[in-house]
Each structure stands twice: as structure tokens, then as C-alpha cells.
Amino acid sequence: MSYNKEEKLQKYAELLVKVGMNVQKDQRVFIRATVDAKDFIHLIVEEAYKAGSSDVKVSYGDDRLAQLNFQYRDQSAFEKVPQYLIDERMDYARDYAAQLALISSSPENLKDADPAKVAANMKAYGAGFKEYMKMMQSDQFSWTVAAYPSPAWAQLVFPELEEAEAFDKLLDAILESVRMNEADPVQAWVEHNDNLHAKADYLNQKAYVALHYTAPGTDLKVGLPKGHIWSGASSINKDGTSFMANMPTEEVFTVPHKDEVNGTVSSTLPLSYGGNIIDEFTLTFKDGVVVDFDAKVGKDILEGLLNSDENAKRLGEVALVPHDSPISNSKILYYNTLFDENASCHLALGSAYPFCIEGGKEMNDEELAAHGLNNSITHEDFMIGSAEMNISGITADGQEEAIFVNGNWAF
Hints:
Largest sheet: 9 strands, antiparallel
Structural class: alpha+beta
Mean pLDDT: 97
Strand content: 25-35%
Low-confidence stretches: none
Number of strands: 20
Shape: globular
Distance between the termini: 34 Å
């Protein structure tokens, strides 16, 4: 059965509510979006109420207002998050509301802003929402990150097209990435979920002590903590309800040991961070810490990211994505981490997910650190995969076994 665009958007809204957040009867819902997506947000809100939600709150952002704020406000205005914003989001988090972040902003929205203001703003948000992020990263509540186009983002992705045509093309690509072109999208997600879990199960049985990455510009060894858990696709919240954190998703991921990363890694796709692009960058690690870095584009922005706090120079995630995957094969560069990370193996600077180690959801910060997990106010994925990427798992007796060969799964 094929659907027209309006029907696909309705089905997409339903998918985000029922498969993404998996909204339950009488559950509250908190949605963050930009005004560009308001018409689609209306569909999501209606679907959430149909699913039994008791309260759906939408917090809107506006890209042009953000530009004006950065242009005219002093840097001191970006050094602290207004308490009412923190209180509102924490009210929903403590009530275990389902949460949706719908991404639409142009990745270059703040390219003309003062990098010092951008760095201060990102640092302030990381610190202000630290408790919220800790609850989210330990899956206390259901959370989903998804996307909907804006004209500015679409023009960045498809600069050769007129605005309306670019918008439609990006929308089509997003809908295809979340399997809306399948006859039964929900069943397609069930099967996709099973496939990713099978990969994670295999790696969990292997219990490698480290990973070795080799590719042009990359020779990196990443230690894995004892009791690490590979995850993929659906997660489980504190009530035992499944949800999909990222839509789309193609990754299987775990936590690295924060002190056991050595070597150099090179990016293979641009990173959108703080309304800016960082591209063609390298990071060199020693005993878990970035000791040298360079970037052809956005080096000052990268420096701000690395200096977010004392642990932003350490890794918090390793993720495996085959080069032969739907988003990679689309040959579209989205300039958006939600999509580009699902076209490529990636790492993340900053905080680790507690659910990726045995017993981690019940551990405090000190216990997690003792097990090798990083704690930071930031968590930023960056893409390192390619058709030339080889990854081996190192066993407890020092043997190397192929996990990825020429960018794809070896098993």
C-alpha cells in the first residue's frame, strides 16, 4: 500500500508516538521543536492525546530569534540558563513524561555568532540540564530524537534546488529513513529492532576488552570496561516500557573505558555543533584524554567543545554502523548528527550511558567512574566511518578478531 505525503506525515506522527516515545495511558508528554515544524507538531500532539496522554506540552524555539539573541545580547546572558526553563523540563522528567526532541534547525543557524558566546551557551546548557541529562541517559523516562525539515536546513542539504523543492526532497529522505515507505512501517521497525539486537547480542557474548580502529588517518585503540553492554535500537525505561531513542537508528553501541583510549582518529563527515560546522578534524588521545587536535573548518568551535568541562576531552560512546546502510547509501549529507551518525561508525566526546554497563542504572557518579565510565556535561557524536574502516575486537588473551572489514560487518 502506498500513501500520499499527508498520509505519510500522519503515519509518521503516529510512529513517533507509538514506536518512538511509546506513549502510555495518562502519561504526560513534553515536546521540543522549532516553529518551522508547528503544523507537523499539531499531528503529533493529536496522536499523543489519542494514545491516552493526559498532558502534552510543546516548547517552541525560533531560529531567527536565536540569531538575534546572539547578535545583540552580551556574553554574560549566555553563561546561565534561566531557572524557569530548567524547572519546567525537570517537572516533566520527574513525572517520567515521554519526551520528544524534533530537530529542524539549520546546522549553520549560528555560523555568524561569536564563538565565545556559542561556547558559553553550550556549557551553560550542559551544566543547567545535567540532572535532566543524567535521568535521560539512564533511561528513567522514554525519550526520542527525530527530525522534520526547515527551509534553511533543506537549502543547506540541497543548495542546487529551489526552497520548496529542497524542502520536499529533504522531507522525502527523512520519511524514507524512518521506514515510512515500507508497506507496514511499524512491522518494519520491529524487524529492524530484532536485527540490531542480534548484533548487540553477538558482541556481548564476545566480551572484547578493547577495539582497534584502522583507516586512513585513523589508528586508535579503545579499551572497553569490564561488564560493558552493547545496545541497539529500542531501550527500556524505568517502568519496563520500550521506546526508540533515535528515529532513524542504524547503530549498535557501548561505552569505552574513559582512561584507555590511545592513538589518533580522523573525522569522515562534518559535525554540526552549536549552530556551526566542524569538519576535517583529527583528535589524538593518550590514556583517554585528547592531547592534540586540529580542524580545517571550525577549529575554534571544536576547542570550545573540548573545553566544555574537564571530561569533555574523553570518550563516552563507541558506535558501530555499517557503511552499507540505508542512510549511507542515500549519499545525502544531512549536516545533522541524527542522520549522519547513522551513516557512519562514530564516537562521542563526553558523558557515557549508564545503561551500557552491568548495574549502571543503579550506580552513582563515583561508582560509574570507578567502572571506567566518563561523566561530563556534554555528549557529542562525531563520525569516523568509511568504506576503508577496519575494526577488530581484542580478546582477553590479546587476539584480534574482525568486527568490521572495509566498512561493513564481518559477521
